[in-house]
Amino acid sequence: MTESPKHQCSSCGRLTVEYSKFKCPKCKESSIYRCYTCREKHVPYTCTVCSYEGP
Ligand SMILES: [Zn+2]
Ligand SMILES: [Zn+2]
User: Fold this and answer.
1) 31 C-alpha vs ligand 1 centroid, how far in Å?
2) What string of H, E and C letters represents the secondary structure of the chain?
3) Cα within 13 Å of Cα(12), Cβ side
4) How far is the CA of 55 from the centre of ligand 1 (A)?
5) Which tens digit of pLDDT belongs to each residue from 13-47?
6) How far is the CA of 10 from the centre of ligand 1 (A)?
């Protein structure tokens, strides 16, 4: 019972358990997952639906 759900980071592509999830601010359709590291470093992400790039 120690398994945490993992998600792929939308910035670096790694599987992560410490992530923040939010909707794409442009199309509001795709869910963006961002690992703690990428959030700290402000690595840009790309939306898979509308190709929006944002911090
Ligand atoms: Zn990442
Ligand atoms: Zn989008």
Assistant:
1) 14
2) CCCCCCEECCCCCCEECCEEEEECCCCCCCEEEEEHHHHHHCCCEECCCCCCEEC
3) 14
4) 12
5) 999 999 999 999 999 999 999 999 999 999 999 99
6) 7
Q: Which ligand is nearest to the CA of 10?
A: 1
pTM above 0.85, yes or no: no
Inter-residue contact 46 to 39 (CB < 8 Å): no
- Cα 29-49-52 angle, rounded to 5 deg: 95
Q: How far is the CA of 5 from the centre of ligand 2 (A)?
A: 23
